[in-house]
Amino acid sequence: MMVPVDAARGSAWIADQLRQAIVEGTYKFGQKLPAERQLAEAFNASRTTVRLALDRLETDKLVARRIGSGTFVSYRQPGETDDIAEITSPVELIEARLAIEPYMTRLAVLNASAKDLEKLFEACDLAEAAGNDATRFTEWDTQFHIRIAEASHNPLMLWIYRRVNEIRAHDQWAAMRDKILTPQRIADYNRQHRALAEAIASRDVEGAVAMVTSHLHYARRQLMGAEGSV
């Protein structure tokens, strides 16, 4: 279903129209948007203007753009992940990550481009620059693992990992995060991330898989300790 046609009013207006269509469910989660050419015709705008509008939506995490495939809705209606987040314990979340991330990392070692590696090391740098700020560290810790998923160059793997990460970002984890992320543990996680990034960059498949597995087991032990002290 196409959004209403209107005269070209700039990328901000087009972004607002598409945002409304996504939030109202005209375009649903996972659905592919019309091609840039089709949107340009619908809005009587240039493809450059449409592309800028899609940039805005991507920045707002309403859509995800895949080279060669198109633009897909990544927005979920409120409450879509709440139920599963409420019944998933921190340890269960780590167990799910242990099932996914080692193979995701293997794919990243095999498929990562130079740009992917640059973004991975950037996430390391910014997580380290966060110092002992648990909130800022968590933002870049999250980005580090998302960027490994992106480096796998497997769209389905990235989609699955984003769903796992949405649960990890749920409000109920905030108190647990603050309990776990002491300055020493932040430093430990940063060292582990740096070593993992270097293994991926060196194309060391077995080393990278062993590192991410060890990293997640370390996180699991911290979570179990935190849960036991509640």
From TrEMBL:
Top-level lineage group: Bacteria
Domain annotation HTH gntR-type: ranges: 8-76
InterPro entries, A to Z: GntR_C (IPR011711), TF_FadR/GntR_C (IPR008920), Tscrpt_reg_HTH_GntR (IPR000524), WH-like_DNA-bd_sf (IPR036388), WH_DNA-bd_sf (IPR036390)
Alphabetical UniProt keywords: DNA-binding, Transcription, Transcription regulation
Identification of the protein by name: FadR/GntR family transcriptional regulator
Native organism: Dongia sedimenti
